[in-house]
Amino acid sequence: MSQRIKIALLGAGGRGTGFAKTIKDLSHVAEIVAVAEPRDSYREDIKEWFDLPENRTFTDWRDLVAVEDICDAVIIATMDRDHVGPALACQKLGYHMMLEKPMATSLEDCQKIAAAQKEHEVITTVCHSLRYNKGFALVKDIIDSGKLGKIITIDQLEQVGFWHQAHSFVRGNWGNETDSTFMLLAKSCHDIDYISYIAGRDCRQVSSFGSLSHFTAANAPEGSSERCTGGCAVEATCPYSAIKAYVDSPNLDQWPANVCSHEHTREAHMRAIETGPYGRCVYRCDNDVVDHQVVAMHFADEVTATFTMTAFTQGGGRKLRVHGSAAELLFDENDITIKYYGSNNVERIAVGAEVGGHGGGDKRVVSAWLDAIRLGDPSLVTTDVHESLRTHSIVFAAEQSRREGRMVDMAEIYAAPISV
Prior knowledge:
Elements: E1 5-10, H1 14-25, E2 30-36, H2 40-49, E3 57-58, H3 61-65, E4 73-76, H4 84-92, E5 96-99, H5 107-120, E6 124-126, H6 134-145, E7 151-159, H7 162-169, H8 183-199, E8 203-211, H9 242-247, H10 266-275, E9 292-299, E10 304-310, E11 317-324, E12 327-331, E13 335-340, E14 346-350, H11 361-375, H12 385-404, E15 408-409, H13 410-414
Parallel strand pairs: 1-2, 1-4, 2-3, 4-5, 5-6, 7-10
Antiparallel strand pairs: 7-11, 8-9, 8-15, 9-10, 11-12, 12-13, 13-14
């Protein structure tokens, strides 16, 4: 493909806007030529950034796909429950597709998306950005080099952070499963995908436990009120104060403070939390997703893995331990430490921070997908919809285990019927 790749953006929220900025940075390769977004101000931002004509801006993705040959490829960053419709429609039109994770909110819809790719043979990627993060990619290279010997056990911790849980999974768009999806799929399909990736084997069995333990009305402090504004007696000392998070923040135009209002002034943010969802008391929201969960996985060749997701950490980020037959590896997103058994030999590798979403991983996802389209080589993408379906299946099994209180054999999940 000699000309710039023409891309339509479906969904201009935080993730969609971030991907649009990446496309702008890669303007020698691709350009945004159309946008579908129901909120006027967010749609207008994309229109202005890319100088789009009025007839290339839409409030509904259905109107966009109704226009013939509007683009070469699409980025789908709508809300989780709205992925399957545009994914199927765009593949049918022959548009290459980048799909924000999760693929969809049911196993059947994920299967439908993968089946559509087989039928229409477009180049796809799902945004499992951990695989493309510099440090996590280096860990994979080390494992593949054989330095650790045979992989025996893997343990990954996702520190969601008390403030991130309150922002996204209590007050925010992903707090209520009916409106979005369950926590493990919304937040941690990244992690399950990566664990499966470095295990390098098929998952056989899954068990999981977790619950919503803290962010409930039963734990509301005495003297607290429905909102942080209007005289809550404990707001000044509460770690979840919306005033501290969204009004007193020194970075009103940056995530997460910028989410509460399109206009970024203290006055606008205060008005937003006085009436909007981000001003609600975290103990009095309609949230129902878990705030902590553990997953145990048994892979082929007797490899075992555990994953812990918890809201109850000061900071965010992930910690990873990989135990091999010859050495163990520790990774905290900044540094890799390898300790070799039977000697005092310790190898330390400074990874260093990178700018951009998911430590630069988001940009690499986009770049790999664009290269695959430009060169007509789908192998340049490591997270197409079929690979994503494979690892999403582990997530659905884990949630089934949590709800039913039993171990789930992956054969049950792979045998699930699909009705296209």
